[in-house]
Amino acid sequence: MEIQFDTYYNFEEIVARIKWLAQQNPQILEIIEIGKSHEGYSVPLVVITNKNTGAHREKPAFWLDGNIHSIEITSSAMVLYFIHRCSMEYGSDSFLTELIDNNTFYCLPCINPDGMMRALAAKPAFYRSGVRKYGEDGNYLYVEDIDGDGRILQMRIEDPTGDWKISPLDSRFMIKRAPTDRESEGPFYRLFAEGLVPEYDGETIPQIFPHQLDFNRNFPIKWRPEGEQQGAGDFGGSEIEVQNVIRFIAKHPNIFAAITYHTYSRVFIRAYSDRPDSEMHTSDLWMFEDLEEIARNTTQYPTVSGYHDFKYHPKEIISGAFDDWAYEHRGIFTFTVELWDLPTAAGISEKNDQKNFIGWFRKHPTTDDNKILQFVLDNAPHTLAEWREFDHPQLGKVEIGGLEHLFSWRNPPQHLLEDELRPHFDCVMQMASLAPKLEFYQQTVTPLDDHLYKIEVILHNSGYFSTYVSHQAKNMQIVKPIYVDLTLPAGAQLISGKKRVDIGQLEGRSNKNSMTYYHSPTDNRKKIEWIVRIADDDNITVTAKSCKAGSIECSLHLRQNT
Ligand SMILES: [Zn+2]
């Protein structure tokens, strides 16, 4: 089956491809249905791990998801790209193979099939997230293809008080009217997304329907109702698509890190959304910084906290978002990754260099618009359309044309998609390589007396993160202590030690300083001792289970020295 990344697949096409990949790679891929969408689509999650080296739940896991927002289709392409690369390179790339042997990747290409299918329909319609009826209809604009050309362009209406004008460089491209532009310098226009206004009152030009569900405000973390935050749903976790995600993650405490993909801005965003970094556990903040360094090095994207650098309004915070929920309630190091950015692709580097992600939208020089136009002409000329008159069923005479948002602003033009995705594969792999890893460091059996043996087992964490990964996970009691169990054959007798030993947690390399004279304590190891009475030539089994660092088992053969 053809799987390419110079095109966008809709949900059904993605499902066909992951099923095919799972059939081709049964040793490392498995599909689990995590629930249904509002309209009844089965929502598949791809589990990637080498099944021969242990079950997926018994390994540290990385979560990836996409398309919580309907039209951010680059995000599901990213998750499919990740699954595809794993399938193709397992067994040949040693770094990747080792990661898939030792870890699990939970990959959810599309949280929200209903909205995504609308975005890529033959007659598309754009929803923020879900399509469930929510909020009162009214004099609003519903974004959809109204002239039947299969795409959603812009609508404009000439208006002397309008705030848009035609670019002198290209008549299809609209630019902002300057504050000092006089009416006589027109024509000026009102600019809208292509769409319908079913309840048009005949005079007020509507805004886009505000009562659309936004699943990324519906997570049960400091959830706020409609009056405080639009689209947040009826209550925290009210939406079935969100429930699918939180139920799965709550049942899989082995998840230690997560990325939820969105578009656009080219930025990694992490918790908190609602308060400063100074309120985060300091060690957790340092761990986030380690991951952010990987993100910057592999993708060249900047990294920010939502609160400090990615607020839609300087005095407003968002809540009910996946990344806050996953970190605060589950202790998972989580990033919201905004893939793609038309302005930076067009060479407007100051925007991201100065972390002016949102402020730029409010105000930027016209020269920036010219750069964007040039980029579109060079890279995506098919997304620019001539303005044509159209008899709008509610608004009367309008013009439709301008820029196709879906493959310019919101997602990269098709032929640039793979370039955008590629660095993020390496980013995830490098982040995953920081996982904790529980191992047997040493096992010693000493015969003491007739049928009496001393057993010493040293466990260690050979990973970078501690076995609890984040202090938040420990504080929220998501991680249980590491339990070491001794299993004896029938007739054997435990003389000293406990059958189940709680060894707490093991540190990793992440808590060590970088000074060259600094000491490196072995706080990643613990020793357990037992004395057993047992028949010669018998075996005992030692198992160790860590919530996030994996489960391991070894068998020891007991024999007297002769
Ligand atoms: Zn989004």
From TrEMBL:
Q: Which UniProt keywords apply?
A: Hydrolase, Metalloprotease, Protease, Zinc
Any one Gene Ontology MF annotation carried by this entry is:
metallocarboxypeptidase activity
Under the cellular component aspect of Gene Ontology, which terms does the record hold?
extracellular space
- Database matches in SMART domains: Zn_pept (SM00631)
Domain of life, per lineage = Bacteria
Tell me the ranges covered by the Peptidase M14 domain, including all copies.
7-365
Cofactors named for this entry? Zn(2+)
Coiled coil stretches, renumbered: none
| Active site location | 338 (proton donor/acceptor)
Report TM segments. Answer: none
GO biological process per UniProt? proteolysis
Listed Pfam families = Peptidase_M14
Task: Spell out the family assignment given in the record's similarity comment.
Answer: Belongs to the peptidase M14 family.
Q: What is this protein called?
A: Peptidase M14
Organism name: Uabimicrobium amorphum
Q: State the organism's lineage.
A: Bacteria, Pseudomonadati, Planctomycetota, Candidatus Uabimicrobiia, Candidatus Uabimicrobiales
